[in-house]
User: Which sequence fits this backbone?
């Protein structure tokens, strides 16, 4: 199911929101060996927070959107292209 982003929330994130964002951040850092204090980690965290504020609340969907935004999908995970057709 495709989740539509309706509008950006101006409500401050509470501890539950931050916990979800932190879990997604930690999982991405671990899976892609992103150093905690790197520019990549900063960009990833910013994307996570922005998407969360826009209404992406499901951790799995949030992670897949961040991976797509940062180009973190591995080549083997990408769907085949139409070149061979």
Assistant:
């Amino acid at each position: 199911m495709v989740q539509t982003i309706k509008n950006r929330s101006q409500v401050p994130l509470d501890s539950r929101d931050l916990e979800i964002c932190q879990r997604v951040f930690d999982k991405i850092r671990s899976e892609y060996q992103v150093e905690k204090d790197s520019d990549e980690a900063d960009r990833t965290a910013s994307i996570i927070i922005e998407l969360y504020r826009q209404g992406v609340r499901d951790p799995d969907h949030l992670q897949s959107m961040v991976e797509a935004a940062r180009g973190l999908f591995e080549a083997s995970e990408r769907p085949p292209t139409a070149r061979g057709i």
